[in-house]
Design a protein that fits this description.
Keywords: Membrane, Transmembrane, Transmembrane helix. The chain is 81% helix and 0% strand. It has 10 helices and no strands.
Length: 253
């Protein structure tokens, strides 16, 4: 470890730095909503564009289908994310009420559960007894410990509305990029599609790099994986449109 890395490592493990980092972990992060919305938006609209081009439809058809899908799917995805987070929170609240009731009615049994949880973590003897006493003195801490350790429910609460809005806006933004060239009537269909492909590729790679921050993966590799995923989906859409056009004569060009 060189001197610069060592100094940075020391700074990151100062008391105040650790406190700030732990507080940040407790704060709901919407980067996952942005990544999910961006990837799905770009893949979906570019796949529609690719399918329309492969089928031989004019650029106006690709544009109409792309924008119609962009707003409909973006809204649907945002609502689904909202409902999903709401359902998770309702489940967590239900579990919290159940544990609170169990602690009131069966404190001995719930105390034993705390003991077994920390026994599995390797605590024994006086240390284990001290942990149990500390947790069980505070009912709120007792309940939160049970729902975290027994049910795996995290303390961080996401804002359903904020997550839905983030998903929708990222979907619209990323999904709208591949459609921009089709708004330029001076370009030929092939030129529009080539430019759309280029812009979609940049978007896939950029979102993949953003995803690397979320999952702590190498930026280039994450970008290339997302680019490959989006490119494959678009390729399949183009191939499907082309086969249908050749087989059934579907198309308008």
């Amino acid at each position: 470890m060189n001197q610069n890395n060592y100094s940075e490592h020391i700074r990151e493990h100062q008391i105040e730095a650790i406190k700030r980092r732990l507080e940040n972990f407790k704060t709901p992060q919407n980067i996952s909503d942005a990544v999910l919305g961006s990837i799905d938006g770009c893949v979906t609209t570019f796949a529609i564009v690719s399918g329309a081009v492969g089928a031989g439809f004019p650029s106006s058809v690709a544009l109409v289908l792309g924008f119609a899908n962009l707003f409909a799917d973006g809204f649907s995805m945002a609502v689904s994310n909202y409902e999903s987070i709401n359902a998770q929170q309702e489940f967590a609240d239900g579990v919290r009420r159940t544990e609170d009731e169990h602690i009131n009615k069966y404190p001995i049994g719930e105390r034993e559960e705390i003991k077994q949880i920390f026994l599995e973590k390797g605590f024994k003897g006086e240390v284990l007894d001290e942990i149990i006493d500390t947790i069980c003195k505070d009912k709120g801490l007792w309940v939160e410990t049970m729902i975290t350790e027994e049910y795996g429910i995290q303390k961080t609460k996401a804002n359903p509305l904020k997550s839905a809005i983030t998903t929708f806006l990222s979907f619209i933004f990323a999904g709208g990029i591949p459609l921009m060239p089709f708004l330029i009537p001076q370009l030929e269909m092939k030129e529009q599609f080539m430019l759309s492909t280029f812009l979609a590729g940049i978007m896939f790679f950029t979102v993949g790099m953003l995803k690397s921050f979320l999952f702590s993966k190498p930026m280039f590799i994450s970008g290339m994986r997302t680019l490959l995923t989006g490119g494959t989906a678009a390729g399949l859409a183009f191939l499907t449109g082309y086969i249908l056009q050749e087989t059934f004569g579907i198309g308008g060009m």
